[in-house]
């Protein structure tokens, strides 16, 4: 495995995990909603695999977190099999543009790109959903329980009902102004003419019926027959921006297995998804650029640490915008972008004492001239991780893009608005844009399901986040916290968030980082405290076995089970005020 090739000689420097502890590895289910985590824990307690638990959480989140993810969307999964010869695999379940999609899909009659508000609502933003095919591939490869068993927790939640939490309340209130146009969304999520509020109980019999059909008839029931026809009808007959999707588009969809993207960082190797995800490539560029600096010596309380993180972030995002896209349609120079020689040139652009005036994209080996691949990705999405008693790890980020996706419902679930992750303008300066809309193409994504391996190839950490383009920074910051600052995963997740916008460095308000605003500004950049919410979930192998971790900013929880399937630890906030949806 490539991580052995990189750092086998440094194994002695690692914390060695005794085999006796590995034999006692506990199981973990971690997600952004306690009811989904409980669904994953239920499957693990029944003897299900990590893959089984992750898929049960994906289904449960379809019910209880409809604003963020579900079977109407897509996702990326990275899986590590347990044992000495465990295999690392990734599954691409990203949505695809229908066959009739053209490059000018989001260009208005005046020849200018549409505004996001006009683009994301209705039929023309819907991509062919991928999560059910991803689930089928995942279950076929690594599942232990019968297919139908994985649906039981979600069906129970849809039939018996669940309580609206603060997060859903805030999203419903925010999007209610759009819903006079969307009768089906109002029927399910409004009561007495108003959006549901926290504490109210909701059932979704239509979704229960859909889930039962897929559970009994298999994944083809989603991509053919009545469910598929319902998706097509919702898109074609949408009250806003009706578009062209066909039964053939759904029947043709395939999830794909692809190679992980991995690179060394310190004495570890970090792995994630390749294109069309920009997540792993950009996370690894940030880390690789920081590798030249002694972050451990500086520590988490140093303004210079955060200055360096901000500089590496903006240089990596510049490359992301220029080069990343669906590599079936454009050449993406991933190897060149992650080569040690190239990353050394990027590190050399950083002055430890001064912020740059600009952040140019570089010229990695294999790069071809092209315009920026700017997307309109917004802060939605969800992440969940599972570890089973045999040490298998399933780590998935799932999405329907923005809150409630396209606002369209079919079969009780929201349809995604993933096509707005494409760049709206198909050309710039007379050249085609790498991330423009094309039939059968998967839009660029920031989803970053990530695994960390020690020098012997043993997986020791799994994590990911929600947050649109900010996902990359939430993951990168957490990795710096865990690897450089020696923090347990939960504490690394809780570190302040950082991002950028229009030349300013944004720091999470009401945090220790916000208290450094004046000190950070001395490096020369404009620094602004801002609302920067996140939903990071994951798990870490510790001296006590696997332990779950969850973002204190979210309502998520991580549940750890003992070898008998009994819950022994639960961390996270089960009921907190909803985090900000976006800094924009």
Quick rundown:
By secondary structure, the chain is α+β, with helices and mostly antiparallel strands. It is built from 21 helices and 25 strands. It has a domain at 2-161 and 203-258 and 374-563: Glutamine Phosphoribosylpyrophosphate, subunit 1, domain 1, CATH 3.60.20.40.
Describe the protein.
The chain is globular and about 60 Å long. With 584 residues, it is an alpha+beta fold. 59% of the residues are buried. It has a domain at 2-161 and 203-258 and 374-563: Glutamine Phosphoribosylpyrophosphate, subunit 1, domain 1. The protein has an 8-stranded antiparallel beta sheet with strand order 8-3-2-12-11-1-24-25, covered by helices on one side. It has a 6-stranded antiparallel beta sheet with strand order 9-10-17-18-22-23.
What's the CATH class label of one domain?
Alpha Beta
Q: Calculate the terminal CA-CA distance, rounded to whole Å.
A: 41 Å
Task: Give the neighbour order of strands across the main sheet.
Answer: 8-3-2-12-11-1-24-25
Q: At CATH's second level, what is the architecture of one domain?
A: 4-Layer Sandwich
CATH topology category name of one domain: Glutamine Phosphoribosylpyrophosphate, subunit 1, domain 1
What would you call the structural class? alpha+beta
Give the strand content.
Answer: 15-25%
Q: What Rg do the Cα atoms give? A: 22 Å
Low-pLDDT runs: 1-23, 575-584
Q: Major beta sheet, specifics?
A: 8 strands, antiparallel
Helical fraction: 25-40%
How many DSSP-defined strands?
A: 25
**Number of H/I helices:** 21
Residue-averaged pLDDT, rounded? 91
Question: What global shape is seen?
Answer: globular
CATH superfamily of one domain: Gamma-glutamyltranspeptidase, small (S) subunit
């Amino acid at each position: 495995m490539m991580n052995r090739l990189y750092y086998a000689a440094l194994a002695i420097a690692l914390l060695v995990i005794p085999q006796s502890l590995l034999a006692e590895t506990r199981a973990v289910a971690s997600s952004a909603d306690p009811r989904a985590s409980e669904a994953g824990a239920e499957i693990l307690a029944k003897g299900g695999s990590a893959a089984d638990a992750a898929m049960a959480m994906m289904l449960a989140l379809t019910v209880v977190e409809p604003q963020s993810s579900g079977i109407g969307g897509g996702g990326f999964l990275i899986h590590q099999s347990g044992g000495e010869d465990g295999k690392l695999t990734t599954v691409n379940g990203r949505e695809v543009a229908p066959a009739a999609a053209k490059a000018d899909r989001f260009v208005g009659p005046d020849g200018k790109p549409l505004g996001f508000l006009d683009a994301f609502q209705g039929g023309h933003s819907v991509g062919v959903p991928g999560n059910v095919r991803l689930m089928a591939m995942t279950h076929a490869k690594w599942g232990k329980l019968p297919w139908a068993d994985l649906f039981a927790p979600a069906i129970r939640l849809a039939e018996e009902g669940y309580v609206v939490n603060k997060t859903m309340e805030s999203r419903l209130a925010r999007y209610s102004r759009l819903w006079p146009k969307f009768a089906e969304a109002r029927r399910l999520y409004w009561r007495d003419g108003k959006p549901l509020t926290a504490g109210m109980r909701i059932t979704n019999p239509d979704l229960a019926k859909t889930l039962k059909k897929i559970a009994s008839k298999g994944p083809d029931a989603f991509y053919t027959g009545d469910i598929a026809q319902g998706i097509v009808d919702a898109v074609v007959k949408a009250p806003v921006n009706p578009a062209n999707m066909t039964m053939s588009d759904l029947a043709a969809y395939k999830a794909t297995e692809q190679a992980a993207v991995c690179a060394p960082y310190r004495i570890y190797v970090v792995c994630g998804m390749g294109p069309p995800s920009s997540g792993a490539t950009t996370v690894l560029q940030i880390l690789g650029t920081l590798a030249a600096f002694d972050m451990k010596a500086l520590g988490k309380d140093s303004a210079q640490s955060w200055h360096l993180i901000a500089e590496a972030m903006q240089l990596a995002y510049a490359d992301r915008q220029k080069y990343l896209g669906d590599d079936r349609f454009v050449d993406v120079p991933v190897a060149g972008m992650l080569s040690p020689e190239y990353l050394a040139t990027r590190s050399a652009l950083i002055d430890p004492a001064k912020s740059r005036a600009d952040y140019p994209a570089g010229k990695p080996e294999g790069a071809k001239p092209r315009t920026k691949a700017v997307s309109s990705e917004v802060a939605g999405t969800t992440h969940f991780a599972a570890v089973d008693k045999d040490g298998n790890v399933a780590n998935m980020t799932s999405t329907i893009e923005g809150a409630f996706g396209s606002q369209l419902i079919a079969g009780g679930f929201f349809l995604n608005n993933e096509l707005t992750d494409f760049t709206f303008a198909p050309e710039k300066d007379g050249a085609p844009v790498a991330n423009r809309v094309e039939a059968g193409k998967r839009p660029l994504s920031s989803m970053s399901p990530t695994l960390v391996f020690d020098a012997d190839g043993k997986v020791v950490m799994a994590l990911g986040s929600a947050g649109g383009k900010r996902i990359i920074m939430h993951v990168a910051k957490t990795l710096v916290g865990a690897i450089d600052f020696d923090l347990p995963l939960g504490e690394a997740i809780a570190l302040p968030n950082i991002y950028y916008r229009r030349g300013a460095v944004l720091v999470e308000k009401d945090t220790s980082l916000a208290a450094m605003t004046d000190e950070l500004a001395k490096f020369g950049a404009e620094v602004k405290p801002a609302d920067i919410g996140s939903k990071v979930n994951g798990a870490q192998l510790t001296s006590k076995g696997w332990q779950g971790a969850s973002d204190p900013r979210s309502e998520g929880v991580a549940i750890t089970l003992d070898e008998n399937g009994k819950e022994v630890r639960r961390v996270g906030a089960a009921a907190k005020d909803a985090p900000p949806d976006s800094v924009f």
